Amino acid sequence: MKNPRVFLLIMSLLIISSHSKISLIRYPYLQSMHKDGLTILWRTNQGKSCYIQYKIKGEKTWDKTEGTLRVLSENVLENEVILKALAPNQSYEYQIFTDGQALLGQTTMQFNSWKDRSAKGFNFFAVGDIGEDVKDEGKPDKLGEALAPYALSQDFGLLLGDIIYPNGESKLYDTQLFQYFTGVFPYMTIWTVLGNHDWGLDPEENYKKEWKLPHNEHYYSFDHANAHFIALDSKKGDFFEYEKQKLWLIEDLEAAQQKGFDWLFVFLHHNGKSCTYKKDEEKVIALYPIFEKYHVDLVLNGHAHTYERLQPMNGQGELTQTYPYGQSDYENPQGFISITVGSGGKLRGVGTDPEVFEPDPENCRHPNLVAQSNHSWIFLNLSVEGKTLRAKAIRTLDQAVVDEFEVQKN
Questions:
Q1: Phi, psi of 306, rounded to the nearest 5 degrees
Q2: Quick check: bond before 324 cis, omega within 30?
Q3: What is the pTM of this model?
Q4: Spatial distance between the Cα atoms of 154 and 192, rounded to a whole number of angstroms
Q5: Backbone angles phi, psi at 282, to 5 degrees
Q6: What pLDDT, in 10s, does the model give residues 172-221?
Q7: Is the dihedral of CA 161, 162, 167, 171 positive or negative?
Q8: Which residues of 193-223 are buried (b: 16+ CB within 10 A; e: fewer)?
Q9: CB-based burial label for 3 (10 Å; 0-12, 13-18, 19+)
Q10: Is residue 322 helix, strand or coil?
């Protein structure tokens, strides 16, 4: 090169570029935990390689697993590491690396591995209708703050659909969800289902790019300790591949029944019967006979931007027994209990859902159906220990317990 100054300038820029700092643009989050391991993902602005160092908490020696990088868009790379052969019933520590850089410095995160049937118990949360923009008076930020203190004691979380408003756009996931859950998602596996707003745009190009879930990612199941969980895609009330999904549900429940799980949970976005402002969803109600036949214990959903717990129902959607409003203890109940937890970040009467909330839960179109209701931003914490299930509905803004109940089996 004729001009040495230009040559030196170019070389300096190349050196600076080669040592430019890798930025973490999405904190790690855990997916698809099972008895053999789990997947951990994070996003960076650049990079050529990634890995995770991990060990059982308290041990000195770190293991290392290499991962893969995918270019999602300009300056956005997905880092994915699949951990295998994790020991069950353990607490693990881990650190994330891209191009050899420890992206969180000396910070060590941790998670609880999959629990087998020897485990004493496990804890999880459930909540739906989350990602309403804070500018629209949504509360995903407050939900993240409220859940963070439980991060090390929870094993996983269930997101009950309508994760991102208004149309489930990938481009809004970081600004309306992930940035608020850096104290939650790196510490526990997150399982999700699609809601009607997540179907606003093609899930193949949006929702499924954000999550790494089993089976076809629309509907799937997983085991944890003495419980079996089934995720369904109720789409916009008409269900994704309804007949095919229903057949799969029956086959999955038959297999679970043969394995002798103590607890069977179903989670989806839409309610069946309800005394909220939402209509009864007939295609959900059409699954009630299946829930009864295979002894499903709990059905969790979002959709209505409020909280409502129903009394145990049979396959016809009828009460199996008349309980008083506020019933909180159930011993060997017949039928399944259905709960709406749809006010994780959006509340009826606020923001983009401005209509006044006007249910009549004690004397609604289904008399005596409601066990408890509360119109607040709420998430549900649940714990299973042997044949005892305990749950608390917690108000997001002040952490007050607004409902709690217990189910005891012999």
A1: -165, -175
A2: no
A3: 0.94
A4: 16
A5: -65, -35
A6: 999 999 999 999 999 999 999 999 999 999 999 999 999 999 999 999 99
A7: negative
A8: bbbbbbbbbebeebbbebbbbeeebbbbbbb
A9: exposed
A10: coil
